[in-house]
Design goal:
Its main location: cytoplasm. Belongs to the methyltransferase superfamily. L-isoaspartyl/D-aspartyl protein methyltransferase family. This protein has eight helices and nine strands. The strands form two sheets. A seven-stranded mixed sheet has the order 5-4-3-6-7-8-9. A two-stranded antiparallel ribbon has the order 1-2. By secondary structure, the chain is α/β, with parallel strands linked by helices. A hairpin with a 2-residue loop joins strand 1 and strand 2. The longest helix is centred in the middle third of the chain and has 14 residues.
Length: about 230
Amino acid sequence: MAWHCNGVTNRDMVLKLKESGILTTIRAEAAMLAVDRAKYCHEADPYLDRPRKIGYNVTISAPHMHAYALSMLSDQLFDGAKALDVGSGSGYLSACMAFMVGPRGRVIGIEHIPDLIEVATRNVREDCPHFLQDGRLKFVVGDGRLGHTADGPYDAIHVGAAAEILPQKLIDQLAPGGRLICPVVAIEGFQRFQDLLQVDKKADGSYTKQKLMQVSYVPLTDPNTQLRN
């Protein structure tokens, strides 16, 4: 059912994601109901199940990918948790994560293009201003490949662009029991594709990796390369 969860309203979109078995937790569902995608996607028909351009050669992901991510990270986005959203873009997923961690939690959205930080902040201010006012959500300018050590370690890390290799610095910033979701480029012969990887850190600091599915994301790169593409 992925790519077929189009909605006329935000609630309609969320219900279709739930009925399709993509949105699998009550808390993830509540977050997507509370955060209105139309405030972050400023094109016609914002509830279509497909990625949409938001400028600067980046997109807001399709709703089903946000539903997958929030469902996979639900246990780590508990009340009071700390989370990092790498490539926060429009601010939509950061806001959903902020809803899930509650006022005692902290979500950092990191982007390397300052103008996108301004866009995300404006979007959240128009939709869920209390997330900014109570300090649970903050956007910072930086190289997401390096993470953001100042507010770590993190219980949940989401990467919204495809890395050439799994960023070790992000794994290092996971808290014990934390989970990282990251698309990573894979090459087999002449074929180049992307695997969505799940990394879980154990109490002793070791970690496991699991391939979840093949995906298609914009590259996780530096600002100049992004703007040239």
